[in-house]
Each structure stands twice: as C-alpha cells, then as structure tokens.
Amino acid sequence: MQTFLEQLAHHHTSKHLTEINDFCFVFPSRRAGLFFSRYLSQQISRPVWAPKILTINEFFSEIDPTPVADSITLLFKLHLSYQKVMETDISIDEFIPIGEMLLGDFNDIDKYLAKPAQLFSNLAAIKALDDDFSHLSPEQILAIQSFWSSFNPEKISEQQAYFLAQWEKMYDLYNCFRDDLKSGNEAYEGMVFRSVAENAVKEKSISIPYKKVVFAGFNALNECEKEVFHILQNQKKAQFYWDYPEWIFHNTNDKYAVQHEAARFLQSNLLNYPSPDDWQPPFSEKMADITIASATNELEQTRLANYYLKSMAENRPDPEKTALVLADEQQLLPVLHAIPEEFSAINITIGYSLKNTPAYALVENLLAMQKTTRKTKEGKTWFYHRDVLALLRHQYMHIITDGKNLELINKLIKANQLFIVDEQLNVDSVISSIFKKTDTTEELTKYLNDILVKIYKDLEKGSNNQVEMEFIYHLYTVIKKLSDILAALPQKPAPETWQSLFKKIASQEMVPFKGEPLQGLQVMGILETRAIDFENLVIIGLNEGVFPKTSPPNTSIPFNLRKGHGLPTIENQDSIFAYYFYRLIHRAKNIKLIHTTTRSVTEEGEMSRFLQQLYYEYGGSVTMESIHQKVTVPVHPVITASKTEDVMEILHQWTESGKEALSPSALSSYLECPLRFYYRYVAKIKEPDDISEDLDPRVFGNLFHQMVEHLYKPFVGKEVTADMIKELRSNKGFIRDTMDSIFVQNIPFIRQKSNIFTDLQGKNSLIYEILYKYIIRFLECEQQDAPFQLLALEERVFGKLKISDQLTINIGGTIDRTDEKDGTLRITDYKTGKAGKTIQSIDKLFDENHHSDNKAIFQTLLYSLIKSQTIGHQRIVPGVISVKDLYKEYDNQLYLKNRQNKEVITLELVKDEYIEHLNTILAELFNPAIPFRQTSNEKSCAYCTFKENCSK
Known about the structure:
Helices cover about 45% and strands about 15% of the residues.
C-alpha cells in the first residue's frame, strides 16, 4: 500500500508530468514537502523542472509579500501603540505579558476574520458586567459588606473606571497598531492572512503564477484559508487532497452518537473542497494490530521504546519507514540514549531546546550575577556569593580559566563572605573580564558575546566538542539577533528588560541536528508527522495532559466570546491533535503506543484519552501490555570498613606512642556509628564546604561559648560573687559590644572592608537578639549559683587510659569551664543543642540506641576522668548547662535515676563502671579483627553527612 504522499506524487506524475513545473504544492509543514519531493523524484525517470513546494504560510506570503516582523519587534511596536492609545507610560517590562497576549488575540481575530469592532464592544460589555452589582439584593449586599467593609455597589472605584476604559479602547488599539505597522511596511502573520483573504473576496480572484495549486494534507482551516481556497476553487486553479482514516466517519451505527473529534473539521472540508473525481484516497486495507504499553516511569518508557525498536529491527525494516515519535519533546535526550545500535543512522527533526543546554545555563548564571551585583560610590563592585560560586562551578569556567576557578572557589569559601568585592576576584584577566558590572544593554550584549567567543575558541582547541560548540554558536546568534532587533527600535530597554526578552527568544530556539534528512530512523515530534506515513511506529509520552495538552490558550477573550465569534478554543486544539494522532497510525503496520502510570515532572500518571478511545472504538486488535521489571529486594548487608594495616596505622596516632589525643566527641561519634567514625576521623572525609548565609547551630554554639569566655575571663582565679555577676549583667552596653566584636570575628560578612555591609541580615538579626537574651538569662542563673571559685575556661586537658599491657590510649579535649564550690570540683560543659541530664544506668551511655540522648553526660564524665588524673582531686562532679533549659528551673547537675532513688552523678559514684565500659569500647575500636560497622539505629542516619554512602 502506498503512503498518502507517494500516491499524491504518483497521481501527478502519471497525469500531469509535462506540466508539473507549473504546479504549486502546498503542505502543512516543510517536512511533508521534503518527503513529497523525494517520492516525486523516485517516480520520474527523465529530467523535468520541479514544481514549487511551499507551506501554507509561505503561500500567503507569496501573494502578499509584506514582511512579517519578528515577535520582539511586534512587542515593542505594540507597546508604542498601547502608550499612545491608552495614554499611559507603562514600561516595556510591565507590558510584555500583556503584549504577548494581545498579539495572540489580534492574530486569531485576523486569521479567523472576526469583526474586531463588534468583538471588542462585546468584550468591554462583559468586563462592565463583571463590575455591575445591580442584580444583588439588599440582603446580599449586607452579607458581602460583613467581610468586605469597603464594598459599595453604588460607587465604581477609580481603578475600576480606569480598567473599563482600557477595554473600551481595545478596538482603537487594534486599528492603531495595524496602521503603525502598515506605515513601516510590516505586518504580523494574521494581518497578512486577512489582507490576502479580504483582497481575494473583494477582487473575486487571486493572481498567482501557477496553473494549479495543490493543497494536500490539511485539516483545521482558519477563515482566511477557507476564503482563499474558495476563490481559487472558483478560478479552477485549486485542487484539494485530504488524508484521513476512513473509519473515523463510520465508527458507529448509532444515529445519536457524538461525532468523532478527529473528524470535526474534515466533514465540512470534504463537502466544501472535494478532491478530484479521479483521486481515490489510499485507505488501509487491513487495520493494524496495536499494542498499548504502560511503563512505570519515564526511564522505563525509554527502555520499552528500546525493546520495541529492537524487535522491529529484527524484521529488517526500511529505517526510513520507522519512526520514534515523542508526544513530549522534552524527552529527547533520554530517548536518544535508548535507540538500539541496530539503527546506525538516525534523523532527528525536532531539534534540541537551547534552554536545556549548558551554554544557556552559563548565560543564566551571568545574568543572575548581573542582577545582584552592586557598585558603591567609592567605585568598588560587590558580588553576591551564591551567583559567584554558581558561575565558578560551571563546566565551561574550568576550561577558560585553566582550572583557576577551583582555587578561587576554595579561597572564597574559606573567607566565608556573603558579599565579595571585585578586588578578591582579580585573579587574572579572564576572570576579571567575567566578574564585572554592566550598566547598559549595549555593554551587556558585548559582555556576553565576548565570553561566548572565548569559550568557543577554547573548545575548538579540544576534541569531541562539536556539540558544545554548536550550543555556544546558537546562543551567540540569539544574542546577536536580539541586539540587532533592539538597535532598530526607538525604545532603549533597560538590562532587566533585555534579560526578559532574551529568555523569551532562547526558550523558543531549537538547536538543529545536521545530517541526511531522509535517511535512517526518524525521531520526530507530533507536528513533524503531518501528512507523513510510516510502517513502524513507536510513540511515547501518550499521557493525558501531555497529549493532548490541557492548557487553554493565553488570551484576554473569554471562552464563550471566542466561540461566538468563531475564534479557536481549547476544543479546536483537542480535535486537531486527535486528527494528528489517528491520521498518523491509520496506515502503519506495527504500532507501539507507550504511556507512564506514575506522575512525573512532565507527564500526568493517566493514559491519554486517545488510547482509551482506541481500546473501545478501534476496529482492529488492541493489546494492552503492562511491562513490569522484575525487582528483587536484597537483604542489605551491614556496611563495614576493614581495619587494614593502613587503617591501624592511622589509629596508632591515638595510642601512647602517638602524638594525638582521642576526643570525647570522637568517641561519641564511634558509639553512635562506628562507620561514621571511620569516615570522619580515619578516612578524613569532610562535608563539602560552602559559604553560609545563616548562623547554623554549630556557629550559634561557638558564639555562646566565646561570649561566656570573654565575659568571665577577668574572673579566672578569683571567687565570683553574686554582686560581681549582678554588676556584669547590668552593664548591657558592654555585653552588646562584646557580642558585636565576637560576631564580626566569626561571621566575616557582617562587617567587611570599607564598612559597606555592617548590619546583620535576614533571620541572623533575630538570632543575635536570641543569643543576647540567653546570655542575660545565663548571668541571672549564675548569680543565683554564686559564690564559686572560677579555676579555668576553655582548658585543654590530656590524659591516658591503660586498656591492657600492650595498649594505652591518649585521650583529651577542651573543658568549657572548671570551678570549685563547697569543696567540690565542677567540670561543666555548655550545650546549645539537645542535652539529656538523667540516665537510668551507666551502660545506656555506651548503647548506640541511647547514646545520642546522653552524649553530654558521657563527655563530661570523660572530661572529669581526665581531670582526676591530672590533679588527683577526689570529689569531682560533672555538669551540663543546657542553654535551651535556661528559662526552666536552673540546675546544672546530672542524675542517675532508677526505680528506687535519684542520685547526683559524681565521678566517684560511677567511675569504676564507667571505666569498665569505656575500656571495652576502646578495646573494640583498636582491635584489628573488628571492622567499622554501620549502626543498626536508623535514627542516627537521618541527618548523617555520610548516609548516601550507606545502603540504609
């Protein structure tokens, strides 16, 4: 069986070969014309002049050659007309979304030959009705006023009056805009269509240089196309060839059945513009078997496509007669990876979206940086750290900076500055040329193009960079195109407007893939398939909401008004895509249709209604397949790290012969998860550093510790009385000055060079005040606890634990505070986080399921043990001051509580049992036969830095 285009070519070569050069063939798309040209050449054995092959837009432009302006030029010219008619000084930034909507509406009005005066009059009336409250009863008015106090149905606000005036001037705007374009010998597409149609009706003829115009493969016609078709038909210069599956007209015997949506436009087309009598449409003799397959997700969808294409390849089909069609064109990249190697040649017709390329991401980073960059009166330029780091981390930056970007990233993170001055970025000329502020659109355009040219030249030096170079080149042309358009316009937009326009153009730009257009497996979007037939079809992404799309048109004209004036609505969109779908599959022999069952970023989790219709209405065989990948759920073994000789050598640093001391916090890490201890202290794996804008809990804890140290430093070695603390607490200015100096030391972005950024920003200002209140409350509690002898602050201590004759471990750390009261030595730790103060038994301190809640007790006991070795004091009491509990009853003691009683924990009370458990854990840690294992307590994994390394 021949395809539609093959039969069309055969029909004309057999009947009109000698005059075919006088024919013009008009198709819905260029691709259809390309396939037709190929079929034509295959059926002609001798040289002849080729006919003219055009799209419908090109055909109208031949009749009326008025240049169609690009969308950006149209937006700016409509903006000028809008300002003139509406008597407003609205900026181009504010106008762009309005302008895009109006351009679409004007285009539809002209293509569908609606009467603009009547339509805009109706539109103004509808908007007035929206603000008309005369239908409300007094009771309804009172009900509305009960929650809307300013509501007054008697009075239309000034804003409402202005709003209505805008709608009443829409017809004037429409005429003004058209006149302004005519004066510049320009037009928008609908304007050209209307001009051709109205002139044709007026003259009752159309002057064309062709003997015949063949319109083939069309479906939904706008009113301008209908008028032109009708006039040419009357002139006997037009022929019409329609392509459709016959069964959509005969799918039921029920006279009350609703018309098939795919045939919505075809019935009138066939009646009004019949094909020649000697033309017989190439209907399918046998309806193909169809497979509808469901995939669990988008990735599984591409795997299915690979499977079906492989099975098709086994029958050695003509690759040009096999198509992989994407209902969702965003899936192009994963689909390309899914094409089996049996298809050596691939032709991609949909292109790749420029906005998804690394080159576009780079320009977005550059534009984002320009938005947040500021200049000072002193001539300094300040950059926001997030934009700087995002830019430095881009893959192209490593190429053009010869790796210096990584050094600069490390340097900036170490400085931890929220805002970065230009002096810090003057590493070399290349980096300096990137980190600079542009003030005008001309500067911005040159800035971006210079960077792109630099990247292109550096990519050119390498190998296998052709695709990346193509991305850079296309982006360069987009920027150049926008620059040329704006240079010819009277408005001089701000850089912010330039960015909006750039994103609009770039989002519509596709990077084409070069190659023989008719060779190999065809990878296409739905629109590219118009009038083209394939024997083997795999269509993916057939989900409701994706195909057909459910988004309504962007318009200012309500649905009922559009429908009443004959303008296209979402119903038209559904019918058009239904036609595309059913026409595409009706001659294929092998059809695989795939949808996903789970909702994703791009697809709904429901099959397209077209697939549902096929299942219930299709005359051939429809097989439903649900392909499930066999999944086995293995029992995850506990992840371990062996204690090799290298690991034991690292552990050796904490033994008696080593130079390092094992800290209480390191031992806590081991008790919570031995594997985490391995990652952090043995493998030395660190969290990725970044610049911190907010004061995280760790920084907050450091600030509290330093505040107490600075306030209490003058009291070290003295007896601290209640009066001394009261006097300190009352000196609020001194406390705030101390806080200011400590904040500056810890958070560089608070006060930088030239004193540009001197204030806390965002929620950090709240944290400052919270910390201040905690310090005041802490001193109040300390006043109640006085007097005491303050012995030391932030004291570094060191001790040894003999585990066996062969093993002695160095332990040590920093004690927050040591004081003495009533003959008792107190070892106190400050905790700004969670800190349990009561335990049932000592063994809970060494249980991985309970240690996290009790680590404060464990650590202060260990500090007490170390201190007892150095001073030999017999009565030592560990204590914890929990900052979070300062506003509760003040108590810094720790307790051992069982059913019988509750005792204050002293080192003497628990020392023997504590040491016994401690020795057991340390012996395990230094035993080469016991690997570092993953914890069984999954709660410990919740916020672990290394959880991605584990199987839990």
